[in-house]
Amino acid sequence: VQLQASGGGLVQAGGSLRLSCAASGRTLSSYNMAWFRQAPGKECDFVARINWSGSSTAYTGSVRGRFTIARDNAKNTVYLQMNSLKPEDTAVYYCAGSLTRYSDSERVYDYWGQGTLVTVSS
């Protein structure tokens, strides 16, 4: 499966963005999906994940209550709705997928999108 992340941009603190991760090549409905982010000079960090059916989600603490991960398997797309954005949310955001694993660890995800840059100004 090929993943294409989009929706990043420049937004002021307190604003919102919705990221999309569109799949091609295979249906996304079998994949557990996650979003990670990498800020300049920092490691890649887990943001949110959703299982193949959408019945389970999880978030890192710093985004819980502000971000929502969702999926539309009919559209072969996973979303990350980001509200109340903060300057510390600035990063390149990556979507990732796995057929067999469901974890906060980037190591279990076999498929990765190219990343989309989110910049939050103060």
Textual characterization of the structure:
The protein has about 120 residues and is mostly beta strands. It is about 0% helix and about 50% strand. It has no helices and eleven strands. Strands 2, 4, 5, 6, 9, 10 and 11 form a seven-stranded mixed β-sheet that branches. Strands 1-3-8-7 form a four-stranded antiparallel β-sheet, with no helix packed on it. Strand 4 (about 30-40) and strand 5 (about 45-50) form a beta hairpin. About 30% of the residues are buried. The model has no long low-confidence stretch (mean pLDDT about 95).
Given helix and strand content, the structural type is mainly beta
Put simply, the count of helices is: 0
Strand runs, count? 11
Could you estimate the helical fraction of the residues in percent?
A: under 10%
Morphology: globular
How far the N terminus sits from the C terminus, by CA atoms, comes to 37 Å
Instruction: Please state roughly what percent of the residues sit in beta strands, choosing from under 5%, 5-15%, 15-25%, 25-35%, 35-45% or over 45%.
Output: over 45%
Spans of at least 5 consecutive residues with low confidence: none
Mean pLDDT: 96
How does the major sheet shape up? 7 strands, mixed
Radius of gyration: 13 Å
Order of helices and strands: EEEEEEEEEEE
